[in-house]
Amino acid sequence: MLIAIKPDAKPAEIEAVRDRVTGLGYDPRVMRWFRRTVIGAAGNHLSADATRMLRSMVSVEDVFPIEKRYQLGSRDFQPQDSVVRIGGHPVGGGHFQIIAGPCAIEERWQIRRSAEDVMRAGIRILRGGAFKPRTSPYDFQGLGEEGLDLLAEVKAELGIAIVTEVLGADQVPAVARVADALQIGARNCQNYHLLAAAAQAGRPVLLKRGMGATVEEWLGAAEYLLVNGCTDVVLCERGIRTFENATRSTLDVGAVALAKAETHLPVIVDPSHAAGRRDLVEPLARAGIAAGADGLIIEAHPMPQVARCDAAQQIPTSDFAQLVSNLRPLIDAMGKRLV
Ligand code: PEP
Ligand code: MN
Asked: Among the four 57, 119, 135, 338, which has the fewest Cβ within 10 Å?
């Protein structure tokens, strides 16, 4: 259940509501939602009598008897789409964004050229990992802090917004200094300690679905961000692990449609990590758009053949403008604005 408190409620009145909820056998949590106080609790079915009683309290604006595990993120609580701004660029609510850039930041020229090329294609948000979660410890782990400095340089010189991954709670302050949105990768989708730390950074968070996470687990992970004070959450479907290994992951377009139906959060698609090969990126991007996605995050590198990670799936940045113009008619047909 969620209880929206009136904006002018006094602290003692909020306490009184909290006590009533506790008295009903719940373990309530007091949260902030867009400068409003909301009291949330999970548990048993809320009886009609109890709902009426809570609604009659002077400081209560409304009671939402939601029984799902995700509540703040659900359309039962907020029917209209959330619009998340990344460096001022809107995603959701009819606004479509394509985030593009290399898998990893490798060198100054590489990230700079990536930014220039994708900006020429109309892209406003650059991706690139400074901290890379690699399957093997012998593989390139990213430039770390040096990578963040290179991102900061590009951002200052070109004015492009930045999305970059945070791997651990200890990295949150450093990443948040540069990033306009923090990326939580698939491997950390259910790292609840990291989710809580990232939520408190005061930046939007792009949450990838874990490769073994159900939609409910993914939305539950998003709820951790919302409960911990981050109202700007973007969901990202990037493919899940199935018996099929001809593609790197199986892009779950059903999950995109479902997440759009169940939550008010923007949902974007990462066709690059789903495909694992560059020739499939455009068709999977189309599938994501057609399923209702609010955006895409696509890997692109100025020289993919020498990329230090995910070389096979990165699009040459020089081809990016063509890719965007190929996708634009479908984005338009879905009634979304790519600005
Ligand atoms: C990435 O975006 O670079 C990445 C590591 O993706 P994922 O977490 O989806 O594997
Ligand atoms: Mn990658």
From this structure: 135
